[in-house]
Design brief:
This protein has seven helices and eleven strands. It is α/β, with parallel strands linked by helices. It binds S-adenosylmethionine (SAM). S-adenosylmethionine binds next to loops. Pfam families: Methyltransf_25.
């Protein structure tokens, strides 16, 4: 997990995801949920290169970002000079003051690979939200994702950013040697110049996808009440978004 978004990978991530993800839409989606629940102070976990931060900042909202990767934070800070970003781990962090809402965006929950990672994260979310505060997060739906990657062995993504053509070939393997629904993900990133592929980076990581039932149980055990479950298609994967309230 630690090296996935480090160094050169952070810049490549930023270039490619600008074209995969419609961050205006993403912002509108999360902001509607925040407004519906009267939340004004917001922490975004997995704030990455600060694309949502930019929208929160433009709308003068009380926003902070938190991310594990210093390289991602560096890009986020460059993009958003007025925003506050904390380098930290969602499994163990402490804010100066609890907030109204904590978001975990961009399927960053996929990096919580053990049950202990998930329980520690929900515990940290509980402690860092105010009474009746809410959490909003997305996760990849195992029931749809595993059949999808079993049938689609090689997944290619293409993106053009600042006149450079990028390609990413990804390959997923279901890793049955580990507990839960774990996957090994290998990706090759390259640029295409005059029709010629030039490899720029290889990436390998182990990630986890979840069933809705698993998440419901984890939330129950960590004293959160689900307010809303949204079935949401994102650029490549079917996800669920959960809005849950902290119970007293
Ligand atoms: C797929 S990216 C999503 C970035 C951003 N939300 C977006 O949609 O562009 C996942 C992010 O989660 C961060 N991350 C992974 N594990 C983390 C952890 N334990 N604590 C905090 N951030 C973490 C990574 O550094 C990365 O920036």
């Amino acid at each position: 997990m630690a090296n996935l978004y480090d160094g050169k990978m952070a810049a490549i991530y930023d270039a490619m995801y600008q074209t995969f993800v419609n961050y205006d839409e993403e912002y509108a989606f999360y902001n509607n949920l925040l407004q519906e629940n009267n939340c004004s102070s917001i922490l975004e976990i997995g704030s990455g290169t600060g694309n949502l931060a930019k929208r929160f900042d433009e709308n003068k909202q009380n926003y902070q970002g938190l991310d594990y990767s210093e390289s991602m934070i560096e890009i986020a800070k460059e993009r958003n000079k007025n925003c506050s970003f904390i380098q930290g781990d969602m499994r163990d962090f402490k804010l100066e003051n609890p907030v109204d809402a904590i978001l975990i965006t961009g399927r960053s929950t996929s990096y919580l690979i053990t049950n202990s990672d998930i329980n520690r994260t929900f515990d940290a979310l509980y402690k860092n939200t105010r009474d009746n505060g809410i959490i909003i997060f997305d996760f990849i739906d195992a029931n749809r994702f595993i059949p999808f990657i079993t049938e689609n062995v090689l997944i290619t993504h293409e993106a053009v950013y600042e006149n450079v053509n990028y390609k990413r070939d990804s390959h997923w393997d279901v890793n049955n040697s580990l507990e839960n629904f774990m996957l090994d993900w290998s990706a090759e990133y390259y640029t295409v110049v005059n029709g010629k592929k030039e490899i720029i980076e290889n990436d390998f990581s182990t990630v986890r996808v979840f069933t809705l039932n698993e998440i419901e149980l984890f939330l129950y055990l960590n004293n959160f009440e689900i307010l809303k479950t949204i079935d949401r298609k994102t650029y490549a994967y079917d996800t669920y978004v959960i809005v849950a309230k902290k119970k007293p």
